[in-house]
Prior knowledge:
Blueprint: H1 7-12, H2 26-48, H3 50-77, H4 83-102, H5 112-129, H6 137-155, H7 160-174, H8 176-179, H9 189-214, H10 222-243, H11 246-256, H12 260-273, H13 275-292, H14 302-326, H15 331-343, H16 352-382
Amino acid sequence: MTRLLPRWFVERIDPVADEDELPVSTLELFFDLIFVFTVAQFTAIIAYDPLVGLLQSTLMFGFLWWMYAGYSWLTNVIPPQRTARRVLLLCAMAGWLVVALTVPSAFESGSVWIAVGMLAVVLVHGLMYLQAARSFGPVFIANLAAVAAVFAAELGPEGLWRYALWALAAAIVWSVPIWHGQRGLNLHPAHITERHGLVVLVALGESVVAIGIGARDLPVDADLLLAAVLGLAIAACMWWSLFVRELPATEHALTAAKDPVTRVRKVLVGLSYAFIPVLLGILVFAAGLKHAVGHALSPLDAESTWLLSGGVAAFLLGTAGLRLAMRLPRPWERLVLAAVVLALAPVGLVNTALQLAAVLVVLVAAIVLEGRAAAARTAPASH
């Protein structure tokens, strides 16, 4: 494969060996913003038609999230410190932009351009990654096969055919860890943790954007302000529940895993698989919040109440998966918390603000109790 590439490309792509010195670059942050624009399109789809929109978003997100995570792995071993790498990442960002712009029409009229955008994303990723790990070849082939499924979906008829082929694309890529032994891959703990955390952080910002979109052309009154402030407070609790302890502990757990294969598998389960419900949960919550803004003092429709509670519950389930993968304490607490938040959905049928306030109270109480439990666990060690 490398003989087919220009000499300057092969020579200038060299992975960094020192895992202690790999900061996240500003170009990677720029890359994350483009990807989150793609993710933001799903919020609009879900808000427009919660049931069908959630199905379509889940099928597309399966493949798209795999490739975003692949880029966080790519820049982990091949940091964009030289011109060639930066230009290639910018080309990939153009591919992501094409994907983002065509997401809304992928299941309606069909858009072959979403497949073209994904092909650019996969080609840049694969050709760069092969310079760091020859064992990536089979993964590259699987990614190309998934793109072929997307082309078939968009060029074929509407209906079940399109749904089935998007599901096939997601199944192809997520089957890779089953048959690929993960040998020959290595990841830097701090960088990979920060990259996954940053995309969640920007997605949480999308929930705030949803407030602004929902507030467009509405009078500034209690209906608007109450829902907006409560929605922001819930998003802040979601941030707290992941960033204050979980992600720092995740970095330590990955650092402690000295075997490269063990580390890669922890990242796969804890930061790739578990972050699917984390990110989808944020999108679903943002879609519900978009409906809630401006209607705080009145009942909410049933679909929106389930979007609000279901989104937060899915986020919490993802954090439970992270705890399990990294062997962090008390993952069952997040499962119980998710069940309680989901059970609060019918409250919105009475009053929107009441549901938002109830979810907020439960989250704050859980954060306080978890903080006290963590302090109790560390107290004996300090003595």
